[in-house]
Design brief:
CATH superfamily of one domain: RNA polymerase sigma factor, region 2, helix turn helix motif
Strand content: under 5%
CATH architecture of one domain: Orthogonal Bundle
Number of helices: 5
Number of strands: 0
Order of helices and strands: HHHHH
CATH topology of one domain: Rna Polymerase Sigma Factor, Chain: A
CATH class of one domain: Mainly Alpha
Length: 98
């Protein structure tokens, strides 16, 4: 089994294998977080994908201070909240009948 440090270093080098291992290891955990902030599973999956893109592009910003899972969780929560605020105007849309 590969540890988190090896996965982080692989993702920093943009290795697809390391990115897949990161996704496989943490996707269920992060999907659960995204589900708490979304109205359905499809929306949560979209948020999850956005979260992983942010994780992959900013993995170099992980300093090692604190837990890696906590850092991932923070990104997923912030992405979920941003998605919620962007789509808030569409949540209460009511069709007007003539």
């Amino acid at each position: 089994m590969v540890n988190d440090l090896e996965i982080i270093e692989g993702c920093a080098r943009h290795e697809r294998k390391a990115q897949k291992m990161l996704y496989d290891k943490y996707s269920r955990f992060l999907l659960g977080i995204c589900m708490r902030y979304s109205s359905d599973r499809a929306e949560a999956e979209d948020i999850l994908q956005d979260s992983f893109l942010k994780i992959y592009f900013s993995i170099d910003d992980f300093s090692g201070a604190g837990s890696f899972a906590g850092w991932l969780r923070k990104i997923a929560v912030n992405t979920s909240i941003t998605h919620y605020h962007k789509n808030l105007k569409h949540r209460y849309h009511v069709e007007i009948e003539e």
